[in-house]
Amino acid sequence: MEHDERAPVALLLIDVINDLEFDGGSQLLEHGLPMAERLAALLTRARAVGMPVIYANDNFGRWRSDFRVLLHRCLTSDVRGRPLAEQLHPAPDDYFVLKPKHSAFYATVLPILLEYLQVTTLILTGLATNMCVLMTAADAHMRDFALIVPEDCAAAEDPRDHAWALRHMARVLDADVRPSTALDLEALMKPGAPRRRPTL
Questions:
Q1: Which CATH number describes the domain made up of 9-188?
Q2: Could you point out which of 8, 43, 83, 141 has its C-alpha 20 to 30 Å from the C-alpha of 149?
Q3: What span, in angstroms and rounded, lies between the C-alpha atoms of 140 and 122?
Q4: pLDDT digit of tens for each residue in the chain (200 aa)?
Q5: How many CB atoms lie within 10 A of CB 160?
Q6: Is 78 exposed, middle or buried (0-12, 13-18, 19+ CB in 10 A)?
């Protein structure tokens, strides 16, 4: 669905287009697969209400690469992360940024893109909850974005790390960590919509 490129809320998918070919990748895939199913449903709902969708991915040190090359590799090669890419691949109207470090804000065009879109609330999802999602959430909080981190749309290698990161983001970064099914996306897209405070 094509939208008018201005919205109060954006959905950010962090490192979901990922080959997972590294130590810990098998554990991340184990917990990432059920997460991907729930995130795919949230992604469909977000697109249906015209919410901007932004993919933020590591460049994995491949400075001559780009997002399309990474996507093609994850969709066509025999890599661990292929099932995630197949469920969560971008649509033609989605946005993407490549990041050199953990945070989607660090040395990327994301701040400029969010300003252009007039976004004030970010829904953060993806991998890994206790690393790139957490680092991105911290940077977003320091930039005064309202944060939603649905607990069922992020994953980590260890469920204990996932749970700790969610508690930390709720308590320290004022993130709303309710499950994705509890989010009324249509209401969130209305300017000035109230945001429920976290309960953890």
A1: 3.40.50.850
A2: 83
A3: 8
A4: 444 688 999 999 999 999 999 999 999 999 999 999 999 999 999 999 999 999 999 876 666 567 888 899 999 999 999 999 999 999 999 999 999 999 999 999 999 999 999 999 999 999 999 999 999 999 999 999 999 999 999 999 999 999 999 999 999 999 999 999 999 999 999 977 655 544 44
A5: 10
A6: exposed
Phi, psi for 75 (deg, rounded to 5): -90, -20
Please give the Cα distance from 152 to 134 (Å, whole number). Answer: 15
Burial degree of 105 (CB within 10 A; 0-12, 13-18, 19+): buried
What letters, b where the CB count within 10 A reaches 16 and e where it falls short, cover 14-29?
Answer: bbbbbbbeeeebebbb
CA–CA gap between residue 195 and residue 40 (Å, rounded): 23
The rounded distance, in Å, linking the Cα atoms of 126 and 150 is: 10
CA proximity to 80, closest of 157, 163, 152: 157
DSSP, res 105: S
97: three-class secondary structure by DSSP = strand
Radius of gyration of the chain (CA): 15
The structure tokens listed for 90 are: 């971008």
